Amino acid sequence: MEKQEANAYLASEPVGKLLRRFSLPCVLSMLVSALYNIVDQIFIGQGVGYLGNAATNVVYPFTVLALALALLAGDGCAALLSLSQGRGDAQGGHRSVGNGIVLIVIAGLALTALGAVFREPLLRLFGVTEACYGYAREYYDVILIGIPFYAVASGLNAAIRADGSPGYSMFATILGAVLNLILDPVAIFVFDAGVRGAAIATVIGQVASCEASIAYFRRPKSFALRRDSFRLRAGIVRRIAALGISSFIIQTAIVVVMTVANNIIVALGPASRYGADIPLSVVGIVMKVFSIVIAISVGISVGGQPIVGYNYGAGNHARVRQALRLILLANIIVGALATLLFEFCPQAVIALFGSESALYNEYAVLCFRIFLAGILLTCIQKASSIFLQAIGRPVKSTLLSLSRDVIFFIPGLFLFSAQGGVTGMLWAAPVADLLSALLACILLYMEFRGQRKTMPEVMQSA
Question: What is the pTM (predicted TM-score) of this model?
Answer without folding.
Answer: 0.75
